[in-house]
């Protein structure tokens, strides 16, 4: 049983005169816990950004593009990369703002509102990342299909043989691969941020009881 549970137990058992003090104590505890959770969301997002940036540097996509002679794709991929970095930095700044607001709150209602805002920011961030992963996977398939010499046999089969069946099978493989890729990252983000979001939701429910 953690400190919050002990305070709630004392609140229910003691006299009415003690309840007001206990409400304040519970609020302070929830405030401190919420601030800590949002701080961890900020820290994790920064670490995640650093890891992806390191992976991008270590596995240089320019070399892969040159080996496939797909230089025409390079410009668009760079734009997509820069836009992605800018959006992720914006989300990190939004996480910092959420942390700064929650750390200085003195009102129960305001704390509840900022908890909801913090949860929505994380949800938007996760959905943005999943969409970008889906777009990147599709672009990878398109680039491989157009420029990879190993795809020549498949393209000939689509053009001259059972085009409908081959094309249908190819599309099915692409769709299944995209769904699996997005599904794996969805599970990753659910594990990474889901626990923190559930704790924030629990804090919100406890604050709602106090605010009644």
Describe the protein's architecture and organization.
This protein is mainly α and 212 residues long. The protein has one domain. Helix content is 91%, strand content 0%. The chain contains seven helices and no strands. The protein has helices at 3-13, 16-58, 61-67, 71-103, 108-147, 152-160, 163-211. The model has no long low-confidence stretch (mean pLDDT 81).
Which structural traits does this protein have?
212 residues, mainly alpha, 7 helices
In short:
This is Beta-carotene 15,15'-monooxygenase. By secondary structure, this protein is an all-alpha fold.
- Mean pLDDT across all residues, rounded? 81
- Structural domain count: 1
Unreliable segments of 5+ consecutive residues:
none
User: What is the number of beta strands?
Assistant: 0
Largest sheet: none
N to C succession of SSEs: HHHHHHH
Query: C-alpha Rg, in Å?
Result: 25 Å
Keywords: Membrane, Transmembrane, Transmembrane helix
Transmembrane segments: 37-59, 79-96, 125-147, 167-189
Protein name: Beta-carotene 15,15'-monooxygenase
SSE diagram, text form:
Blueprint lengths: L2 H11 L2 H43 L2 H7 L3 H33 L4 H40 L4 H9 L2 H49 L1
